[in-house]
Amino acid sequence: MNPIFADIPTTIFETMSRLAGQHQAINLGQGFPDDPGPEDVRRAAADATMTGWNQYPPMMGLPALREAIAAHYKRFHALDLNWETEVMVTSGATEALAGSLLALIEPGDEVVLFQPMYDAYLPLVKRAGGVPKFVTLRPPHWRLDEDALKAAFSPKTKAVIFNNPLNPTATIFPREDLELLGRYLEKYDAVAICDEVWEHVLFDGLSHTPLMALPGLRERCIKIGSAGKIFSLTGWKVGFVCAAPALMKVLAKAHQFITFTTPPNLQAAVAYGLAKDDAYFLDMRRELQAARDRFAGGLAAAGLDVLPSKATYFLNIDLATVSNDLDDAAWCTRLVSEAGVAAIPVSAFYAADHVRSVVRFCFAKTTDKLDGAVERIAGFVKRG
Predict the structure, then answer these.
(1) Same structural domain for residues 71 and 44?
(2) Is residue 230 domain-shared with residue 337, that is, in the same domain?
(3) Where does the secretion signal sit in this chain (predicted)?
(4) What domain range is 58 assigned to?
């Protein structure tokens, strides 16, 4: 067996979900919403299944969807994309990440990873033959640090995986951090694989700036988006890839030999959804923000240190202010077994130099679940 995959331990998500089942817990660990997603988008998929084309669609994606992606990013991010040469559809953002790494990386190339990080990044980098170089981000602000970038980048740096907004920290990198990273990309002639799947799940009136939109970075960025996150349909696995033609030419070859294509009914429905008026996107944010505020208020009232949540479905607490002796993994194990609430220790998103005091909750749940979780957590904290 290939040791990269054979030696991967059971994921924290599987572990906590199993414990949640054993203890009949409220599961705030896994990052998917209780909401079924917009009915009109789901009906568009059903209609396309019954009346549309169900054989192989074009390898790059349905033209209607690729045009819709380009129009959507023009509308929201002022990006001018040629849908024929700079836009591709993949079977989810994770396939887009895998294809990007396989297209770019040769054995021995270095890839800069910012941790905490999505759990797929590291095994995908290793399987592509890349050598990971870690930059550790720390609470409460999780900002980029120039000294850390200086230590991670080298003449061997081929690529960077950059997740913004960042899961699991629920933060958005400010413009000065984007510009700092851009300078290092240019200095070392590296490409940024930009995981921007949370680009629409933003709060407090904040907006998203794609790294690709910064001056001088258009030719060295691969922008990855996700219909699953935009429409709260995480099982659909429809990803968007945008890149300059020279990059896209090779990205398309990697995609061709991974999944080749994506279900045409889902593509048709996503094309419809991307053209929805602004009200949908604003209402989605307002509803999630209300859930965030309700849950954050309950945790704060229980005496926990709630870190800012500016984006994503997630909210974090920092146990360090309660006690320097508390370990996030041990605290989560106790929480699910003693209080019946499942959460995720953020140390699981590090490969080295772990931060071991931060716990992540998913608040994209019903009000009853959130209120029940707060009541259980408050009792757990009170008992000590």
Answers:
(1) yes
(2) no
(3) none
(4) 39-274
353: left (phi over 0), alpha (psi -120 to 50) or beta: left
Q: Please indicate, yes or no, whether the overall pTM of this predicted structure exceeds 0.85.
A: yes
By the 8 A CB rule, do 221 and 212 touch? yes
**Same domain assignment for residues 299 and 356:** yes
Tens digit of each residue's pLDDT (9 = 90 or more) over 263-317: 999 999 999 999 999 999 999 999 999 999 999 999 999 999 999 999 999 999 9
Q: Crossing angle for the helix pair 264-274 and 39-51, nearest 10 degrees?
A: 140
pLDDT tens profile 226-275: 999 999 999 999 999 999 999 999 999 999 999 999 999 999 999 999 99
Q: Is 224 helix (H, G, I), strand (E, B) or coil?
A: strand
Q: 289 and 266 share a domain?
A: no
Q: Is residue 17 predicted with pLDDT exceeding 80? A: yes
Residues 175 and 200 in one domain: yes
Last residue of a domain, one of 224, 259, 274: 274
Query: Which parts of the chain are beta strand (E)?
Result: 26-27, 87-90, 110-115, 131-136, 157-163, 191-195, 221-226, 239-242, 314-318, 341-342, 344-345, 358-362
Q: Residue 93: phi, psi to the nearest 5? A: -70, -30
Same-domain check for residues 82 and 227: yes
